[in-house]
Specification:
By secondary structure, the protein is an all-alpha fold. The protein is built from 10 helices and no strands. α4 packs antiparallel against α9 and α7 packs antiparallel against α8. It is elongated.
């Protein structure tokens, strides 16, 4: 579970509620018809913008912002060094057993391509094509959320206009001006909160997850191609360590030395 996502949502909602209750009544901000205009309108426009399958798939992908198992770069380097040692001692065909045991589908696919004697350039092309389509699928989910972030403030403004029109229609009754104006502004409030507390942060979180996954898979591509080229495990380690942020390299090397 991603504690940061949970903490962000809980603290964001709590602070907004605290701010409302400090100067008013929380029930004033609960308005079903305003919520229907903003959330319903946002979902409707999103469905018009994207195929139904992409929208429903995005809702499934969103769970990655809350629940994810981070892929350790250090583990990938360790696995690559182990595979390199096996290949140097027993040959590339000996990697087949390691490929069968690999949990990572992408790594398993690369190992099997090498075991099958595939040309290194073709191995790179196959794996990089897989990466390109993976990135494209990830961007679809981010794009849906970014679109919802753009639509929700717009529907907040639509709700405000509806409220103002109703207010002007009943302008002869001064007592209705205050309540109608209040209702008109609630939709703007909803639109801004949805965009800045839900849709945009979720899109950013998924983008970060995607970048992390792609980086690890790029490490796997470079590691497997180096193994196929017969490079020394120590050289492979030095090559893969360049993918690790400088502040974490010392710790990673230390862990590799202890392994």
């Amino acid at each position: 579970m991603d504690i940061a996502t949970i903490l962000g949502f809980v603290s964001g909602i709590a602070l907004i509620c605290w701010g409302i209750m400090g100067s008013g009544d929380l029930l004033t901000f609960i308005h079903p018809s305003s919520l229907a205009i903003v959330l319903g309108g946002t979902i409707a426009s999103t469905l018009i913008s994207f195929p139904l399958a992409k929208v429903t798939n995005t809702f499934k992908v969103v769970k990655k912002a809350f629940f994810t198992k981070p892929i350790s770069q250090q583990d990938v380097i360790s696995q690559m060094i182990t595979l390199a040692n096996v290949a140097r001692k027993e040959g590339l065909l000996a990697l087949e057993e390691a490929g069968d045991k690999a949990d990572n589908y992408f790594m398993k696919k690369g190992i099997m391509l090498i075991v099958d004697g595939t040309d290194p350039e073709l191995v790179r092309n196959v794996l990089e094509t897989e990466l390109n389509f993976l990135e494209e699928r990830h961007q679809e989910g981010q794009s849906v959320l970014n679109t919802m972030a753009a639509f929700s403030p717009a529907f907040g403004m639509v709700g405000t206009l509806i409220g103002l029109i109703n207010m002007l229609k009943e302008l002869s009754d001064p007592t209705s001006v205050g309540p109608n104006m209040s209702v008109a502004l609630i939709t703007t409030f909803y639109g801004t909160v949805f965009a800045n507390l839900i849709f945009t942060p979720l899109a950013n979180k998924l983008k970060g997850r995607s970048n992390e996954e792609l980086l690890v898979k790029e490490m796997i591509v470079e590691g497997l191609l180096s193994i196929q080229a017969g490079e020394n495990p120590r050289i492979i380690e030095e090559k893969l360590i360049t993918f690790v942020p400088p502040k974490d390299r010392k710790e990673t090397k230390k862990a590799e030395g202890e392994a």
